[in-house]
């Protein structure tokens, strides 16, 4: 009995040491094996994978072991090893596929086909089993046999519409878009609720479709389905989605409107499309979407959202235009006023109120009325912290516009204090720093800007870095800061929409400080003033000054790119292409280089 106990303890000790060895060394050996495999050192890799499989029984290590043997053309050993696994795992048909693949690599195609066909003949009507076999074929890139597997699987399970998604994925791997799309659409015919899954798969396919050969196939098959299966709205939804991927928002609107009418929807689909169209500057389509929802009447759940969206879109449209007349802003202001008079809850919408105040102050010289409106809104109860801060931020902006700088600073400080470590607080801090900059307090402004470099808002952090760098770059040699202060005054005049006075300031800087490091910046500001006033020739000339006289400054590639886009709008394609070529060749490290190359390729088509 004593001898038996000793023997048992020795055995336990041995097994424990083997287990300990496996746990402590498996990761190291695995990493080493994969490194050998990556470096195409298949002999040492095969030994390590063999040992790892022996210890762990992991199928992954076995697969790599067989791959190593195939690379070493040791087909006999590969066949021998696989047959051992087949004996140990008679129900796992993937080993039979492995064996067939080894025969194929060894040039024994008849044996390979026989092995594959044997797998297909032995298939049982179990979905998981069929999928497992097909996946094993896919891993070997035996796509035709994977397709056969699913087709046979349908027959033996007596279910014609199984495996549509799986087959589509295989056809994508083969770049057979015709069959791929057909399978996805058949999947929707059977189960329209799979629309999101199909969209996700097609999005991946569209990204891989470099030559846009998928586009006409998808569009044509969808149109056929829409005509033949009129009651299945998923095809219209998919066509709308496709048009949105291609940023063809007008075509998407046609589908969305049809779905909304047939499905008797509440307009949510149209609001979503309007938002996407507006983000991509297709204001016309966005306005049509909003109008369609408004036409449903005030009892519609999205009526108010549509009216707000309509106003915001018109506001953005005028802001984006280079040149707008006062009458345009008067007309839009009237729309806001009508909205406030017709909707009882309109004044509680801070974004609409802010836009209305901004229009009246910055474009219609009615700052006193705007200030009164905002102060009245701020005095009301029930405002959230976010809405209160947004209203106060606009009030501060208007105070700054009317040259009440200290009032603006006070308001910005209040917002910053009540919104620490969030976006609106950082925005207020940045605007407060900019007031200091406008006032010529450059050192103090720079200190505040530097504190914002770590802002969680990337946009604000970038703006702070840019302005801080501008101050730093242009005050090193000019210790009096005179030119920088004049430049800041010109920017403030532009903020106040006093562009003619800003131009005088900029001309004063150029005259009194010839050759100053700010010169290229001055010309870019002049460009912005001219383009806003629709003075195209003068705008082009200002950019040319930077390109020709300051080619080594950081603004040179930006000026080239901006001028190229302007020339494109004027249909001066050859000149635009010269600009883009210049960027690609002379400023290859610039952030504009990649975009310039794209523009160049598009213009060459």
From TrEMBL:
Alphabetical list of InterPro entries matching this protein: TPR-like_helical_dom_sf, TPR_rpt, Ycf3/AcsC/BcsC/TPR_MFPF
Name of this protein: Tetratricopeptide repeat protein
Signal peptide extent: 1-22
Source species, domain of life: Bacteria
Coiled coil segments of this chain: 563-590
PANTHER family to which the protein is assigned, alphabetical: CELLULOSE SYNTHASE OPERON PROTEIN C, TPR REPEAT-CONTAINING PROTEIN MJ0263
Transmembrane segments: none
Keyword Repeat tagged: yes
Record Pfam families: TPR_6
UniProt entry keywords in alphabetical sequence: Coiled coil, Repeat, Signal, TPR repeat
